[in-house]
Amino acid sequence: MELPEVVVRPAADLRVGLTAEFEREISEADVFEFARNCGDMNPLHTDIEYARSTYLGARVVHGAYQVALASAMAGMYLPGRNSFLVSYNAQFVRPLYFPCRVVVHGEITAWDAANVRGNVKVVVAELPAGTTASQIHVGFTCHEAAPESISSLPSATQPTAAPDAKIVLVTGASGGIGSYLVRELARDYSVLAIMNRHALPSELGENPRVQQLKVDLSEPDAISHLEGMLGGQRLFGIVHAAWPGLLQGGLLSVPRQALEQQLSFAIYRTIELARLLADKGESEGARLVVLGSTAGTQKPSLTTAAYSLAKASLEHTIKLLAPELALRKIMINAVCPSFLAVGMNVQANERQKLSAKAAIPLGRLCETADVLGAVRFLFSKDSSFLTGQTIVLSGGQL
Alpha-carbon Rg of the chain, whole angstroms? Predict the structure, then answer.
């Protein structure tokens, strides 16, 4: 077999967001050779009649074969020859029938330059439709630096905290309010910044107390991927600032999928982050702060009804989680600001800002510093008996 040309990428050239891909034909002969080499002769892969009798209806490619494709991505293309693989976390989305042609796409989702280690997310998709068959997260380190002992290396996907600093995780870190919170919280904490489509501003990306982790929170198994990236690290707090956008219109007009996504971020992701903190939180206690909105239960909006419904659901989720988390010394609260001229409202014109300001008795708009103040309070010892509550930043507006 003609071997592909190996890619050599020095550790200095690696970064979050770097991608690569290759295509591969998978024939019956390929599957049988793999089965013989590894010893997995399960009839689902090798016996046509048996496979037809099952609910799958035909023979399928080994899951381990797809993991091997992820190994080829990491060892040959991204990061390439200099990599040494230390962990795999695989999810098989749907059966991959053969013969077939697949595209293997890799993207670096975490990179710790100081300790020369990271994570590459590999997606195996069937062509020509591009339907995802599997997602494999591969932890790697780079051997060009010749570490003293591979066995002494920490988990390849485990972020590194600043010395003696508590670790705080912020979702939606590349958004307007998210990036502000990352910058300010990094003064006191080691911050793990969760981003997806957009990287952090350069000044934050270069901050030694901030590490970017690329995670698509819209994926059903996003939090399990995040848990794998954390390795043995313990968290002091989580700020859940991510949101899938502001939907316009009433509930009768909003598409079902869009409504489900809003509710997913409000309910399911909040619950999953609570589970993550229950597992990864510091033994002496931890804090979970979720960003809500006055458009939730306080002042619902008919023009953005799906958004209001989801934010109201978030508040109830907080209340119901609080008793369970309290048993683990974890405080959970929501901060609900009124109109903020950042993030989803960054395009607001001057007239809209003046109209929002006129409705606030305090005579000014809510600012990012107000949100930060509430978060800092909820992270402080002064809030150690406060949980299941909604802190409304309304400036006196009813």
Answer: 24
